[in-house]
Design brief:
heterodimer; A: 473 residues; alpha+beta; Rossmann fold; Dna Ligase, domain 1; 3 domains; five-stranded mixed beta sheet; 23 strands; globular; B: 271 residues; Immunoglobulin-like; C8orf32 fold; five-stranded antiparallel beta sheet; four-stranded antiparallel beta sheet; 22% helix; ATP-dep_Glu-Cys_Ligase-2 (chain A); UCP005522 (chain A); CP_ATPgrasp_2 (chain A)
Chain lengths: 473, 271
């Protein structure tokens, strides 16, 4: 498989440097041999000091480790970003309208534009949300849209993460590390700032305070606790926003309202950024055996006494089977053509499409409808015959449980490999905040598949991160 | 008919019960065939309860107690005026999300044999109302033929029948829901909290079916709450899950004038 198949974000086919990378390219040229190695070591020291770790489920090694970081930033031009931004904004607007509709009149189902069964029987559809009016009609306030690039103007949305997307702390820490490591480069290039994210998150939460809250809204971050793989991020964000970090046991519901236990007595809570999955937030309404949540929380939300960010039930809009309808959803609610493309997706419940899929598994990517984090997934081109046979059986047994997509030719970015610079495949997760307005942090988290040729960028599968530089004009 | 209801029950608290919350679905709403004249729920903490409409259109209460000193005693009294509409409940304001009631739940998994028989009849031209009546009769017959008849507790039988009915109706794409309510004391023993089903018909709206009694609800029925299944319509859901103390006291009688006045003099209306 020749490297030419993939779009190189830095180099043109003739070896010349693409304009957005010009200054970075010159800088890289000018670095002495050992400089990148030194920078990588310095970066590691910085991250160790910051204490950024993440847990890998199912790994036998120590439960916490550093997420690998590549010191060569990814560069996106102002022009490229503008288009991405527009496309993302369009998508999150439409998806929030879709959520409102599904939990109210269901016009899109009545209009026959999306199958009723797909919604009503979907695990991610939350019947308890029916008829509930979240503040300002917004369900998903914190979104991480996964985007891949295959050419100069070809961007595809892989998935819209509308539940509790993680990784934003890496975006912020990557930037902080880079500002320590290469201050001179920030003088040469005008890079759009990402540091406003925590402030924007705080603003978004304040804007979503329930109508009944008249004073200054009290904000908290609700975490499942220190054993969660993203605990670092929960505490980091709470800290950055000046909000309290709570576990379920720190909160209680009394007289229909939510309170936090403090040394000064109970303190009323108005807005909760919860990083606990829907099923676990409230044993009174959802899983009765959950110890992580707050009994009565959902009813207090329903009664309009507290806001949950994101709302429960947002998963129906990023469900992998619903994903194929997003272009339809954008047209239905906004009357616009989608700006960003969806990855073409095969539907295994259709006999002809399933037959094609089973014949071509070595070229395709198979994902579990409710899976995430790169678990339960088959990447055809790098799979073994045995793995493909296993997935073929799985698909035959439960065709509705899988979606299948062509293997995308993910773009590559220059990456330091320890020996030299070489192209590695990347994706991008921009972070979106939806409050009174839509705030998209320029850039986002670039995940990079560090193994040569690998297309799997998930940190749980050996991927690393890079700082993402959106250039200002 | 005017029906007077009194229902008292108790959950045991112990010294470890620091904080208790309850989701209470025990407040009936007006429908085309029932009008709530008076309704009172008494329990600790109710004066500060959050009152809201749940996802299924029920009036719900969120009640809490901090360090309850004694058992959690709940008393419900009320008077409801009902009329006989041959089970037809019709359309209720704000209750238009009938597609929601096609959703299968862990308690309402369709029985393949029943669904296939219903489908066959539908193919042969049976109307949906015919199908639902057939289904109700079929469940009733099955119950009479079962060996452990007489051993079953009435609540379990009613709940199970309602679940099977609801699941089968959903299996042929008819929206159906689980209903809790009271039935007038009769010859069949003491009154109880009962369970039945409602199914959606494009022409008539919601129609009640009581598969355990094999009839469509009459004026002897008072409807309390609806939902997807027994889980979503539990009269009192609570955390911590306190044990029920003794048997419920339930009286469902035809209301006399004096009883109505008595009920009307109570404070703290739940309606």
């Amino acid at each position: 498989m020749s490297e030419k198949k993939y779009f190189d974000e830095m180099l043109n086919a003739d070896g010349s440097v693409r304009e957005p990378y010009r200054i970075l390219g010159e800088w890289l040229e000018g670095q002495p041999k050992q400089a990148l190695k030194q920078l990588s070591q310095d970066a590691e020291t910085i991250f160790r000091r910051l204490g950024i770790t993440f847990a890998v489920y199912g790994s036998n090694e120590s439960t916490e480790r550093l997420i690998p970081f590549d010191v060569i930033p990814r560069v996106i031009s102002a022009h490229e970003w503008r288009r991405l931004e527009k496309g993302i904004e369009q998508r999150v607007k439409a998806l929030n309208m879709f959520l409102w509709d599904l939990y109210h009149n269901q016009d899109i189902i009545r209009a026959g534009r999306i199958p009723e069964k797909l919604i009503i029987q979907n695990e991610a559809f939350c019947p308890q949300m029916m008829g509930l009016n979240p503040p300002k009609g917004i369900y998903s306030h914190i979104i991480g849209v996964d985007i891949v690039r295959t050419g100069p103007d070809d961007f595809y949305v892989l998935e819209d993460n509308l539940r509790t997307p993680s990784g934003v702390s890496y975006m912020l820490e990557d930037r902080e590390a880079m500002m320590h490591l290469v201050p001179d480069l920030f003088h040469k290039l005008k890079v759009a700032s990402v540091e406003t994210y925590p402030e924007n998150l705080r603003r978004t939460m304040q804007e979503m305070a329930p109508e009944s809250c008249t004073g200054h809204p009290n904000l908290v971050v609700l975490t499942p606790g220190i054993y969660n793989s993203a605990y670092f991020e929960h505490s980091f964000l709470a800290d950055q926003m000046g909000a309290s970090l709570c576990e379920g046991q720190d909160l209680f519901v009394e007289n229909g309202k939510v309170y936090m236990r403090t040394t000064l007595g109970p303190q009323r809570v108005d807005v909760i950024y919860r990083r606990i999955d829907d099923d676990y937030i409230d044993p009174l309404t959802f899983k009765p055996d959950s110890m992580l949540g707050v009994p009565g929380l959902f009813d207090a939300y329903r009664a309009g006494n507290v806001t949950l960010i994101n709302a429960p039930g947002t998963g129906i809009a990023d469900d992998k089977a619903v994903y194929t309808y997003v272009p339809e959803i954008i047209e239905f609610y906004l009357g616009e053509k989608p700006i960003l493309k969806n990855v073409p997706t095969y539907n295994c419940t259709s006999d002809s499409e399933r037959a094609y899929v089973l014949d071509n598994l070595e070229h395709l990517v198979v994902k579990e409808v409710h899976g995430s984090g790169g678990y339960g997934m088959l990447v055809g081109p790098t799979s073994t015959k045995k793995q493909r046979a296993e997935f073929a059986e799985k698909i035959k047994a439960r065709p509705d449980n899988y979606i299948v997509q062509p293997t995308l030719a993910l773009s590559t970015c220059p990456t330091f490999t320890g020996k030299g610079i070489s192209g590695r495949h990347v994706d991008l997760r921009p972070y979106v905040l939806v409050g009174d307005k839509i705030r998209i942090t320029p850039g986002g988290l670039t995940r990079v598949a560090l193994k040569q040729g690998s297309l799997v960028v998930n940190s749980s599968q050996g991927g690393g991160t890079k700082d993402t530089w959106v250039l200002e004009e | 008919m005017r029906i007077a209801i009194r229902h008292e029950f108790r959950f045991a608290c112990d010294e470890n019960t620091a904080h208790a919350v309850q989701h209470v679905l025990m407040t009936p709403i007006d429908t085309p065939n029932q009008k709530v004249v008076e309704w009172t729920i008494k329990m600790p903490g109710i004066e500060h309860a959050a009152r809201f409409t749940d996802a299924f259109g029920n009036k719900a209460l969120l009640v809490s107690q901090t360090r309850p000193e004694e058992d959690l005693f709940i008393s419900v009294t009320g008077v409801v005026e009902t009329s006989d509409t041959h089970g037809v409940v019709g359309r209720i304001a704000g209750d238009s999300n009938f597609a929601l009631f096609k959703r299968f739940t862990p308690q309402t998994r369709p029985n393949g044999t029943l669904v296939n028989r219903l489908k066959a009849q539908a193919k042969a031209g049976a109307s949906s109302v015919d199908l639902l009546h057939w289904l109700m009769n079929r469940l009733h017959e099955a119950r009479d033929g079962s060996q452990d008849d007489g051993e079953d507790t009435p609540e379990i039988v009613a709940e199970d029948h309602a679940h099977v009915f609801v699941a089968a109706a959903r299996g042929i794409d008819i929206p159906a829901r689980f209903v809790t309510g009271y039935v007038l004391d009769g010859d069949t023993g003491p009154a109880r909290l009962h369970a039945w089903a409602e199914a959606w018909d494009e022409k008539l709206g919601w129609i009640g079916f009581d598969p355990s009694a094999n009839l469509c609800p009459t004026e002897a029925y008072v409807r309390i709450a609806v939902g997807l299944d027994a889980d979503t319509t539990q009269p009192v859901r609570l955390v911590p899950n306190l044990p029920r103390e003794a048997d419920d006291v339930i009286r469902v009688t035809q209301a006399m004038m004096s009883q109505q006045q008595q009920a009307g003099s109570q404070s703290q209306s739940g309606a």
